[in-house]
Structures are given as C-alpha cells and as structure tokens.
Amino acid sequence: DTEVTQTPKHLVMGMTNKKSLKCEQHMGHRAMYWYKQKAKKPPELMFVYSYEKLSINESVPSRFSPECPNSSLLNLHLHALQPEDSALYLCASSQESRQNSYNEQFFGPGTRLTVL
Amino acid sequence: DAKTTQPNSMESNEEEPVHLPCNHSTISGTDYIHWYRQLPSQGPEYVIHGLTSNVNNRMASLAIAEDRKSSTLILHRATLRDAAVYYCILRTNTGNQFYFGTGTSLTVIP
Fold this sequence. Notes:
The structure holds two protein chains of two kinds.
Chain A: E1 4-7, E2 10-13, E3 18-25, E4 31-37, E5 44-50, E6 53-57, E7 64-70, E8 73-79, E9 87-94, E10 106-107, E11 111-115
Parallel strand pairs in A: 2-11
Antiparallel strand pairs in A: 1-3, 3-8, 4-5, 4-9, 5-6, 7-8, 9-10, 9-11
Chain B: E1 9-13, E2 18-23, E3 32-38, E4 45-50, E5 55-56, E6 61-64, E7 70-75, E8 84-91, E9 104-109
Parallel strand pairs in B: 1-9
Antiparallel strand pairs in B: 2-7, 3-4, 3-8, 5-6, 6-7, 8-9
C-alpha cells in the first residue's frame, strides 16, 4: 500500500468554525508533512513531524495546529481561519532516514479548503 | 535553503523528447537534486533524483552538469499524460524537508 489518504476532499468553513483535516498512511513512514498550495503556486512546507514529534514549523500562524496522534495519522486542526487561508492542503510521508538520499515523499491528493 | 530556477512553461509535441532545465547555482556539495511532477488535481509525485552522476529510470533521465549548478530532466517521448508541472527540488542531507521552486508547466501538443 503506497497510498496517502486525506479527508475530506473538500471543506468549506466560516471564519469562526473549528475543523480538522486528516491524513493517513500505512507505509510505515515515520516522517510526515503538511504543505499549503495556493492556485498556480508551488507547495509551501508548513510542518514536519519526525517519529510523531514536531520537528519543523515554518512560522505558521497558530490558527493552524498540527497533531500526530500515532505513526500512521496526521491531523491539522483549523480555528479562526481567514479567507486568504483558502488553498489546497497537501499531506505527505516518507521514510525517516536522513542518510538515505532516496526518501521519496508520497503525497496525498489534498484537501481543498475554502474559508468564507 | 538552496534555491532552484526553472522556466515557467514549456511546450512539446507528443512523442518528441523534452528537456526541462533547472538552475541551482547555490547548491552545496551534499544537496541531492530531486524532480517531482504534479498532474492536474493531484498531489506531487516522485520522478527521479541524483547527486552527481546522470541517472535513468523508467520515467525519465536526469542529466547533472559537472559543476552541479544545473540539471536537466529528460522525458524521452512525451505523452499527453506527461502534461504536468515539473518541480526541481534540492534536498539537504540534514533533513527530509522539501522546498519547492516555482516549477515548469509542461504542455504536450497532440
């Protein structure tokens, strides 16, 4: 199974709502990532988890709160978002072995988020 | 983080070879060169990677300049399914994170 799944596929939320994005992989990967992608732009790294611990936060606003409850799951909790946060949110996973040049990242299809 | 620069867009005729260039003049000796592509409405997918030597796999070839300041992704026979945005990425050996460049949008003309 080389698939990363993300739910929901689409999400519309108001600025006062609280919602969560979910990501799951069963490849035994111990590194997981969240990216944000605006239309016609490249993905921007948001967070990196290594062995279920947050290792990188790319100065993301606190209205985005990541969580890694176990080695297969990655969540992104959303609260008090702004319309400019509307984007495609991509999850990815990879082996966690920094000596390995390969470490292919496997991406999910993304959640398309619209903030009204 | 080391940066990459790529042309915004390129066109190719179907079944012709395509050469997608990437400049990475600030590459360090331990940076790996990765290429990913993103088809419409999908997440990015791995294409190929290399360090110093040219590389071939079933999808493509990667030609790396001797000074490593540039590289070229070669699709030997473009098909309509190869229409995508191709990203050239430098990955350090101190972490697994990727910082995507602007990418090249490839259009394949039937």
